[in-house]
Amino acid sequence: MTTIPHVETLTSFHLHRATRMGYVYLTVANLERQIEFYRQYIGLKLHWRKDATAGLGAGGEDLLLMTESRGARRFRATTGLYHFALLMPDRREEARVIGRLFSLGYPNYPTDHILTKSTYVDDPEGNNIEVYTESPEDGIFEVVNNSFVARHADGSRSNGREAIDIEAFLTNLLPGDRLDESMPPATRMGHFHLYVANLDETMHFYADLLGFDNKGIGRDFRMGMVSVAGYHHHIGFNNWIGEGAPPPPPGALGLRYITILLPSQAELNRVAARLEEVKLPTEPSEEGLLIHDPSRNGVLLTVEGRADPL
To answer: In Å, how far are 199, 226, 237 from 206, measured between CA atoms?
Structure first.
């Protein structure tokens, strides 16, 4: 784990409201196979490829970077990525993804979180992807008094993990819609969800030090959330793999880092000053500043619209 320095006087700090989530960067064992999976099953496009690294997205900014490391393997019961979540602009596009996965016979798990409609799928190397769309008109899903609470719009309770009625949901598709179409350009990275070693230390890092809004820790569910500008969550984290779980060793399959997009260089400079104030170690790069949370999950702070990273 990363030791977070003790700060005697902690000033209040908040990330700019225009801050949003960027690409996720993974180490993979077979780049060709991974590219084919994300193109055929998820609907991403190959934006570029250079040597052993590729960038994919929906035609705009990169949403996924992968670098091949032959012989790398996955380590279980370690911190890292639980899933990255691609945000669809509407139910129609969400239905297209779900319909495509079922038509190709690929396992996926459509889930009604009330506040969102999601499906979950593992890539061939065990990285989990959530594809979701917002549905706040259906109700809420939030932390109240250290517990997760989900309610339908009529006030009735839910566990927040109901199965979606697939037949009904696919009626969001229009006549003539093709299931094999790529994700639309409006696709964005909605949030990240991380495995961590300790919930309180993680919340302190992301909320108190880095400036996300504290959306609460559901003690009964062993999960916490932070966000920017009132969103339900931009980063979720859990300790489901065990309190005090270690990070994976260098070169393991899976997460290299997640990316946080700041709206300007001035904002990146302001965050850099904050990191210096709270004595958090940083690793400068051409793209921005790389930091690590207490569980050694990498976080790249960069500027929106900056050129492709490699």
So the answer is: 11, 7, 10
Q: Which of 31, 58, 34, 22 is nearest to 181 (CA)?
A: 58
Cα 194 from Cα 274, distance rounded (Å): 23
CA–CA distance, 44 with 38 (Å, rounded to integer): 6
Task: Name 48's bridge partners.
Answer: 55
**What's the longest Cα–Cα distance across the chain?**
62
CB-based contacts of 280, cutoff 8 Å, min separation 6:
4, 5, 209, 291
Alpha-helical (H) ranges within the chain are: 31-37, 91-103, 166-169, 199-203, 265-277
Give the CA-trace dihedral at 276, 228, 239, 68, to 10 degrees: -80
Considering the entire predicted model, what is its pTM? Answer: 0.95
Q: What is the C-alpha to C-alpha distance for residues 224 and 310, in angstroms, rounded to an integer?
A: 33
Q: How many CB atoms lie within 10 A of CB 133?
A: 20
Question: What is the residue-wise DSSP string for 134-172?
Answer: E-GGGEEEEEETTEEEEEETTS-EE-S-EEP-HHHHGGG
Identify whether the C-beta of residue 47 lies closer than 8 Å to the C-beta of residue 182. no
CATH code for the domain defined by 20-303? 3.10.180.10
- pLDDT score recorded for residue 1: 55
Over the chain (310 residues), what is each successive 10-residue block's mean pLDDT? 60 96 98 98 98 97 97 95 98 98 98 98 98 97 93 96 96 97 98 98 97 96 97 98 96 97 98 96 94 98 77
- Token pair for 93: 């596009």
Number of C-beta neighbours around residue 213 at 10 A? 19
What's at 72, amino acid-wise?
A
